[in-house]
Each structure stands twice: as C-alpha cells, then as structure tokens.
Specification:
441 residues; alpha+beta; Rieske Iron-sulfur Protein; Naphthalene 1,2-dioxygenase Alpha Subunit, Chain A, domain 1; 8-stranded antiparallel beta sheet; 4-stranded antiparallel beta sheet; 22 strands; binds FE2/S2 (inorganic) cluster; binds fe (ii) ion
C-alpha cells in the first residue's frame, strides 16, 4: 500500500480537500481550507482567504432575495433567521424614488366590499394605519387603528356585535369610533369622552369601500365606473401594493408607450412601439381627462398569425377592437374602455390610493361582455395579474430624483401627451387648494 506521503511525492499535494483516511476508519469529510478554491471552501474559507463580501440583491431570484456575494463565487443565501424574515416582511424591496408629498384631497378606494368579513381589516392609507369593518348597521367603517387607550393595534383585535375590540385591554369601539365598553371597570362607571378613535367618512358603492382622505368635510361623491351597459362578467384582483409614490404609479397607468417594453410577457413581443396621436379633453370642473386612440395603441391585441392564435381569439371573442377610450378622474381612478367589432366590450378600471409617501395601493377590476365564460375569466385574471406584476417591477426602475414638491423635470415626447395633461390638471388642483393629506398624517 502506498502511503499518503509517498503519493504526495509522486503526484504532488492532494488538493481535493479530503482528509486522509484514518486507520481502519472512513475518510473524513473535506475540510474547509484556504487551500481550496473559494467556491468549494465556502463562506468562512473564502473570507479567510481575503475575499470581499458584498451585500447585494440576487438578480437571479425573482424576489430579489438578499444574499452574500463572494466576488468570483456564487451568491450564498443568508441563513434564515427569525429577524431576517421579519425584516423582509416589513421592509420589502422598494423603489429608490421615495417621497410623494403631493397627495390631493379626495375620495380614494380603501377596500373591496367583500374584504370586510368576520375579522377587522387593517390597511395603511395616506401614511396612517386604519381598521375597516362593518358596524352594527352593517355599514362599512374606517377608524384609526390606533387604540385611544395605550395605542394598541385595533386591526389585530376582533369584532363583537359591530364593535372592534382592542387586543390589549379589551376596550370596545363602535362604528363611530366611540368607546362603548371598558372591561376593567363596572358597566355603570363612566367612559372618558376622549376615549374614541378618529373616523374617516366612508361610502360603499359598486362593490368597493371609498374613504375621504383629507381634513374637512367631504366634497362630492366617489367617481362612478363608466359602464356602457350591463356587464356579464366582473373580476377583481386583490389590492396590489406598489412600492412607488402615488403620482408615479398613476402616470405609469396613463402612459402606453411603455407597453412594448415592460409588457412583452403579457402582451407579446411584437407590439408596435409607435403611439398614435391622441387628443386629450380636459374637464376641469369634474377634475377629469378623457382621450381616445385613433389607431391601436401599443399593447392592443394583434391579429393572430397562426391557427392556434385564431382559435384562441375565437374562444375569447377577441375580434379587432374599434375604440380605446381612457378616462382619468382625479385623484386616482383610471378607466379604459375597449369596444370590439363583434359588439362586445370590456372595461378595465384601476383605482389608486396612497399607502404612504413611498407606496401605493392599486385596486384593479374588469367588467366585460366579451367571452362570458370560465375560459374568458381565467384568461382575464391571468392577463390582469401579469400586467400588474410587470408594472410593479417597472416602478422599481425609476431612480431619477423626485423634487420635494412638483413633478420631476424630464423631457417628454408626443406620446406623453396624456401624462402632461394629467400633470397640468393635477398641478392646478393643488394650486386650487385641493392638496391635502391624511387627517392623521
Ligand atoms: S391599548 Fe387598547 S385597550 Fe388598552
Ligand atoms: Fe403598464
């Protein structure tokens, strides 16, 4: 038998890292050594060898998971710790462009009606936590989620006969925000008059709960959906959180020149890039804009070039569209109505609500007469969620600085006509004193 020393003399030193077999035992596991290549040596060995550690986002991971990157080596995921997972939960990847102080006073969508169930719904709106629930009269209610007693989170509590009960000391608040029961004292003892939570004015219409998100009494009513007839199918996506400022997210929805680049996955890779001319009608009294495309805008369904595509379009009733009509109601509702040559139509409506200065809720729904069957629903849901996901990722690409007030100065092209009209109308609304913020911000 050749001894390890003799083998080393003949063949050079063993660089496999495997320890020599002990007498009568199994070979030991490879040891981590600075003699090993960095990849094989692992994190500790590489660090000892002087490799530089970089915190970075793993671009190969769709969620942008954090990892430790050894230069010249593959990324190693951080060990899952309780602390790390909590940090991910509360501080997701966000656009570096944060801060949007230009929130207009107005009606904002806060929840879908069917989100109000047997448990309180917590939702951050305009930079403040709220709790939404149905009161004793079954009316949708939105209260500040901060308990007036010691600041407990009412959204983590429970509902009892139309009241929300704080999880900390059990105080119960009714739909007007008044405390009606303090369990630690007898029923005949008085309840301090200041024991109440601030309440937002709430309107429930068309399957959604709207709140007036500003100081002072509400003005007007939430903007209605512009349905040209009775839809035969309706779909709603659960509220989507975009980590970008409110105005950035609304402008993204208005802009269609990004479709051939951002929505290649959802809309196909062969979309035309040229945006047809549009004329924007501004209704200042209603704080609304309308525009229409004379030809198909980028991202419009194409005529299929193969049999499978033709069959799909026949099943989904995707005949060539005849009109694309947009309407934007300030502060945050965008509706796109598409009419098809077959006589069918569909409406896509997006409601935007500032979550805080750097994040925005997007409530997406669609109504249609086209393809009123399960296959049509599946296609519509897939398309809606994919477009939202692509848009959410695209907002993270915005790294240009945003001024403390006003819109970022940027060069615009003809295709930005609707965005520029939106900016002018929005700026005028701010000048007219419609600028506001959460009553609690
Ligand atoms: S903190 Fe809510 S009851 Fe005490
Ligand atoms: Fe988009």
């Amino acid at each position: 038998m050749v001894s390890p020393r003799t083998r080393a003399r003949r063949h050079g030193p063993d660089r496999s890292g495997a320890a020599p077999a002990r007498c009568g035992g199994r070979p030991r596991a490879p040891r981590r050594s600075h003699l090993l290549p960095r990849r094989a040596a692992g994190r500790r060995g590489a660090a000892r060898a002087g490799a530089r550690l970089h915190r970075h986002r793993d671009r190969r991971s769709p969620r942008g998971a954090r990892g430790l990157h050894l230069r010249g080596a593959r990324a190693l995921p951080l060990r899952r710790s309780r602390r790390a997972s909590t940090r991910r939960l509360h501080a997701p990847a966000a656009s570096p462009r944060r801060g949007d102080p230009m929130t207009l006073a107005g009606w904002y969508m806060a929840a879908w009606s069917d989100e109000l169930g047997p448990r309180p719904l917590g939702r951050r709106l305009g930079g403040h936590p709220y709790v939404l629930f149905r009161d004793a009269r079954d009316a949708a209610t939105a209260l500040s989620a901060i308990c007036p007693h010691r600041g407990g989170d009412l959204a983590s509590g429970e509902l009892r006969e139309g009241c929300v009960r704080c999880p900390y000391h059990g105080w119960e608040l009714d739909g007007d925000g008044r405390c009606v029961r303090i369990p630690s004292q007898p029923a005949h003892a008085g309840i301090p008059p200041r024991a109440r939570a601030r309440k937002l004015t709430t309107v429930e219409s068309d399957g959604a709960v709207w709140v007036w998100l500003a100081e002072g009494p509400p003005v007007g009513a939430p903007p209605p959906l512009r349905l040209p007839g009775t839809p035969r199918r309706r779909l709603r996506a659960r509220p989507q959180r975009f980590d970008a400022g409110f105005v950035d997210v609304v402008e993204q929805a208005i802009d269609s020149s990004h479709h051939p680049f951002v929505h290649r996955g959802a809309m196909g890779a062969r979309q035309p890039t040229e945006v047809p001319p549009i004329r924007v009608d501004v209704d200042e009294a209603a704080s609304a804009l309308e525009w229409e495309y004379e030809r198909a805008p980028p991202g419009a369904p194409e005529t299929p070039r193969h049999l499978l595509g033709a069959l799909r379009d026949a099943a989904l009733d995707l005949s060539p569209p005849t009109t694309w009509r947009y309407r934007c109601d300030l502060p945050g509702l965008l509706q796109l109505h598409i009419a098809y040559r077959s006589g069918g139509w569909e409406l896509s409506a997006l409601a935007f609500t500032p979550r805080d200065a750097g994040s925005t809720w997007v409530f997406a729904q669609s109504a249609r007469t086209r393809a009123p069957h399960l296959l049509g629903d599946l296609h519509q849901r897939y398309f809606m969620l994919r477009v939202l996901d692509e848009d959410r990722r695209a907002t993270r690409l915005l790294i240009g600085p945003r001024p403390a007030e006003g819109f970022p100065t940027a060069v615009s092209a003809r295709a930005d006509a609707a965005t520029l009209a939106f900016r002018r109308l929005y700026a005028r609304a701010l000048q007219n004193g419609q600028g506001g913020s959460s009553p609690h911000a």
